[in-house]
Automatic annotation (TrEMBL):
SUPFAM superfamilies assigned to the protein according to its UniProt record, in alphabetical order: Purine and uridine phosphorylases (SSF53167)
Pfam families hit by this protein: PNP_UDP_1
Domain of life from the UniProt record: Eukaryota
Protein name, per record: Nucleoside phosphorylase domain-containing protein
Domain Nucleoside phosphorylase: 6-237
Length: 248
């Protein structure tokens, strides 16, 4: 199957806005149910039909909706909407920022493409639930794309916290994580329900196993990482469009 329809899930407005503006995508206010805070932007780039969805803002705290709950719901509803209008996505790309691990060669600004996703905060020490909690899901293979845009490859591990504790560090190591975020595993879980091939494009804002506080480094580098993401994503779209999945 040739890829002509791509769904791009991006959590934060600061991460999505440069890309949406660069490609001239237009808001579609009727895409999501009115009860939800999510946003959709649609348009065409070359021969590919693009839909970008974001988690929107929390009406109570007036900040971006981040974490696994809004990510899973927004992705599910987006895939359901496209399915109901016979515009099924050929590919889902989860784009955004992440923390990177120095031990895996990550540096600020690096672009990583995911080989798999997993959770490091779902610790359920009951037989059968241990593996469920980790919930490791393989990404579609994108080695040719990684070579084309000079990106790194690795596992993305997910939790609902920006910071982490030693027990998280242990599980991130067990997950063989190259990067960590707050949405990837949830987005992949929703994509799997629809049988939609998926992978992540993640730009490093902070070094998890470095010596600077995560929140400080994240805020310091968010702007430059969003710019790096905006530069990488069009290259990703241009490469994947009109290709078959086994060519990625």
């Amino acid at each position: 199957m040739v890829i002509t329809r791509v769904l791009i899930a991006i959590a934060m407005e600061a991460e999505s806005a440069p890309f949406v503006a660069h490609l001239g995508l237009q808001p579609d206010p009727s895409f999501f149910p009115p009860q939800t805070p999510f946003n959709a932007f649609r348009g065409k780039h070359n021969s590919c039909e693009l839909t970008v969805v974001t988690n929107g803002k929390c009406s109570v705290h007036e900040v971006d909706n981040v974490g696994t709950v809004p990510a899973a719901l927004a992705t599910f509803l987006a895939l359901q909407k496209l399915n109901s209008t016979s515009e099924d996505a050929d590919l889902l790309i989860n784009a955004g920022t992440c923390g990177g691990f120095k031990r895996k060669g990550a540096e600020i600004g690096d672009v990583f493409l995911t080989t798999a996703v997993a959770n490091h905060d779902r610790r359920i020490q009951i037989p059968g639930f241990v593996e469920y909690g980790i919930g490791k899901i393989s990404s579609t293979s994108v080695e040719n794309l990684a070579n084309h845009i000079d990106a790194k490859l690795g596992v993305c591990t997910t939790s609902n916290s920006l910071d982490f504790h030693e027990v998280d560090s242990h599980h991130m190591l067990e997950n063989d994580a190259s990067v960590k975020d707050m949405e990837a595993a949830a987005i992949a879980w929703s994509a799997e329900m629809f049988g939609t091939p998926h992978f992540g494009v993640k730009v490093v804002t902070d070094i998890v196993d470095g010596d600077k506080p995560t929140q400080e480094e994240f805020l310091e580098n968010l702007g430059s990482a969003a710019k790096s993401l905006q530069e990488a994503l069009p290259k990703v779209i241009e490469f994947v469009c009109d290709k078959k999945h086994d060519e990625l």
